[in-house]
Amino acid sequence: NCVVKLQKVISQLCSEHHMAKCVKLLEPALHSHAQTHTGLKMFCVFLSSPSYDWMRKLTQRKKQAKKGKASLLFDHLEPMELAEHLTFLEYKSIRRISFTDYQSYVIHGCLVDNPTLERSIALFNGVSQWVQLMVLSKLTPQHRAEVITKYINVAQKLLQLQNFNTLMAVVGGLSHSSISRLKETHSHLAPEVTKIWNEMTELVSSNGNYCAYRKAFTDSEGFKIPILGVHLKDLIAVHVVFPDWVDDNKVNIVKMQQLYFTFNELVSLQSAVAQVEPNMDLIYLLTLSLDLYYTEDEIYELSLLREPRNPKSLPTSPTTPNKPMAPLDWASGVTTKPDPNVVNKHIRKVVDSVFRNYDHDHDGYISQEDFESIAANFPFLDSFCVLDKDQDGLISKDEMMAYFLRANPLLQCKMGPGFIHNFTEMTYLKPTFCEHCAGFVCIRQPLRNMFIGNTGTLLFIVISENPQQGTK
Amino acid sequence: MSYFLFKFLVIGSAGSGKSCLLHQFIENKFKQDSSHTIGVEFGSRVVMVAGKTVKLQIWDTAGQERFRSVTRSYYRGAAGALLVYDITSRETYNALTNWLTDARTLASPNIVIILCGNKKDLEADREVTFLEASRFAQENELMFLETSALTGENVEEAFLKCARTILNKIESGELDPERMGSGIQYGDTTVRQLRQSPQAGSAQGRDQCNC
Questions:
Q1: What pLDDT is recorded for position A328?
Q2: Is B32 within a domain?
Q3: Which of A105, A131, A163, B197 is most buried, judged by most C-beta within 10 A?
Q4: Residue B203 resides in a domain
């Protein structure tokens, strides 16, 4: 009798989302009756695993002492360093996803009140877009080919680190139509690079239900990050295909087993240990670069600008750079006047970070040389002399501040949403105020709101799960 | 036995019932796979269409809708697609244009698409009228059906209609299975020979087209 009851409860667990509550009530009962079935046993192991709640709390970063020479972002980072930092970000985001988050996704078939999973997916798509934009920011086919080569090397390192999720994001970005259509660029890729590239695409291809990836993933030992999408797809498939019940009110053990295997793979990440010792400044800048809010159409338009559709009408030779990017017509929706104080505060943060990383001799000025590396990492920045208002050959903090403040309304029309309210899901623990206009944030349960500020060039995100700790 | 193999895609917003639709179609043909290493593969069924045997290999994108670059990788070499929305959710209907653009740019330009307004059984919660959707279908040259994965209504028809259109296009020479990425394969050589001899004329015509 007990076992039948238990089965009913477990099946409820699978179909409802009062998971956490039920688990607490049932755990002792489950344990005493679990011996009968392996499926149940596995489920119990699962339920009794620690919640890792602490990991989902916002961590406050300690300021790291600066070590030696500042590392620059994309251009100056070794592929391995870049891969490691991407892996750190990925790991940090993915391990926050709890069993209940996954479960809710499977049951609803979509994202409902699921900010952790949503953020992880945003990171994934952010990496893909960043890859595309970095390639497309270069004016000549050779330069673009160099960037592609670098990313292919990064992909190799990601594979080495067994971070399959970011690998998928990078490969996905590079195989996006906005990049793959660039014939001239691809003609500059070395044959050995193309060979590696083909291997990488084979590895994560959807052929045979991702059999190449699944094999590689099963074969790899130790720290590994799965391709989230593939495993979510499995979960949904199992959930839809198998009935919860089989003949005579028996829990479908095969379903439980299948769910267990997949869930286990995903959730075991929470207890995994990342081997990366990150440089937090770099992480910060990388996060800035990844928070891109471009639409696919905008990226594709940029791709068309780089290598127009019909090369006969607009000849491009490898030695002549294409025309510099004309302002695109970014339809950026409603613009609101933000509170200058808030804007100032956030621009200050970005400028500080830029100086920390790019002002090599720490004299408080960005030289022309320093500036070039900034421009390389953040496309769409105006030329040096525009920023250097007093024409002394150096950009001071104030000059850069002034530039961003001035550029903001100007850039807004061509660089996508600027300091406009750009709402994305975000969960707050307490009622809070809008970071841009200081207006009270209208709340529905759970509290949510997120603001994305955008200077047009350096993009930054103003999010905070706990407003008391300030922004990050 | 000689047969065609068509690669099909099921696309559309999350929660529109893609997996259910597919599952309804595959039904008991699905083999329970106990080995977790190869994942869950439940996407094929052999059907008879216009006297020909066709194996439909169907790729479900459920669960991955939001991973843009993952979903895109499915399109390569798809012969047909079921574009699914939920008649009780305008949001899923509004997203159709995006899915359609993806399908048209990423898959073969000849991809045959059928629009499926799913959850037909939930008439009381309907947010998208039949008329509105059929206009959209007409404007975008799509076939259109309203389906119910729950009752099974029109599910079989949707897949078969798509397969039949592809076969017609092959017979009229509009679609060339020999072309890379057409999403169509021969089960063996006999079909190929049968097809090639009477169609030689039209095949030549197509060669001149550079698309």
A1: 31
A2: yes
A3: A163
A4: no
Which of A204, A214, A237 lies nearest to residue B60, judging by beta carbons? A237
| CATH classification at residue B20 | 3.40.50.300
Q: Which amino acid is residue A229, in one-letter code?
A: G
Select from A109, A176, A210 the Cβ nearest to the Cβ of B14: A109
pLDDT number for residue B180: 65
Say if residue B13's pLDDT is above 50: yes
Chains A–B, number of C-beta pairs less than 8 Å apart: 113
CB spacing of B59 vs A211 below 8 angstroms: no
The residue segments making up the domain with residue B115 are 2-188
Task: Judge contact between B155 and B25, C-beta under 8 A.
Answer: yes
Q: Give the nearest partner residue to B30 out of A208, A211, A241, using CB atoms.
A: A241
Q: Judge whether B22 lies within some domain.
A: yes
The answer as to whether B196 is a domain residue is no
Mutation choice for B interface testing from A206, A215, A218, A242 by most B CBs within 10 A: A206
Q: Which residues of A touch B44 (CB under 8 A)?
A: none
Q: State yes or no: pLDDT of B166 exceeds 90.
A: yes
Nearest CA-CA distance, residue B177 and chain A, Å: 19
Q: Global pTM?
A: 0.66
Structure confidence by residue, pLDDT tens digits, A252-261? 888 888 888 8
Complex confidence, ipTM:
0.74
CB contact under 8 A, A237 and B70: no
Q: Give how many domains chain B has, as a whole number.
A: 1
